[in-house]
Amino acid sequence: MEESLFKSIKVLIVEDDPECARNLHRYTETLGFTVKTVGSLRTAMGEAADADILILDTKVNGGQVSTETLMETWTASGLGPLCIVAGDEINRNSLIQSGACNVLQKPIQMATYSAIMSFYAKYILRGKKVEELTQEIKELKGKIAEDVKRQSRKIWIVAGISIVAILISGAEGLPKVIEFLQGVL
Hints:
The protein is α/β, with parallel strands linked by helices. It has two domains: 2-128, Rossmann fold (3-Layer(aba) Sandwich), CATH 3.40.50.2300; 138-184. 59% of the residues lie in helices and 15% in strands. The protein has helices at 2-6, 18-30, 41-47, 67-77, 92-97, 110-125, 130-169, 174-184, and strands at 10-14, 34-38, 53-57, 59-60, 64-65, 82-86, 102-105. The chain is elongated and about 75 Å long. The model has no long low-confidence stretch (mean pLDDT 77).
């Protein structure tokens, strides 16, 4: 059912590496999207207005940095989600601040790509704007970071209590400490 709904969503892939372009194109089609793949920045500029989602390689046309020109045009128009694909080390935070919803490192993990594309599609189908999507992603990342901090604190507190308990009770108290830890964690 999702696949037929996704067919109405147009994805523009801007990638000049033929093998990567072919693989991304095929996989995006198998997810149910309507896909157009271009290998040059010039062609992408002409096609971008018709796309709902843009998948952009950070370097197109033999190393020309494409993120600046196309990202500015794309994000200024508020056309839809922008996902950046990078084959080299890049500054993710800078790209996110510039308007990218996600940054994926090559080789792309298709399970991650699939989840991101489904996420984008559901928002497009619900009529959400890019700004709302980007804000929700940032909030979700913040919640995840807080959960990680909370869990880390909990582990350190439990570890500290365990060490103190072992020091106080000695070796004979170790089974009780282990039993306590199993109940807490």
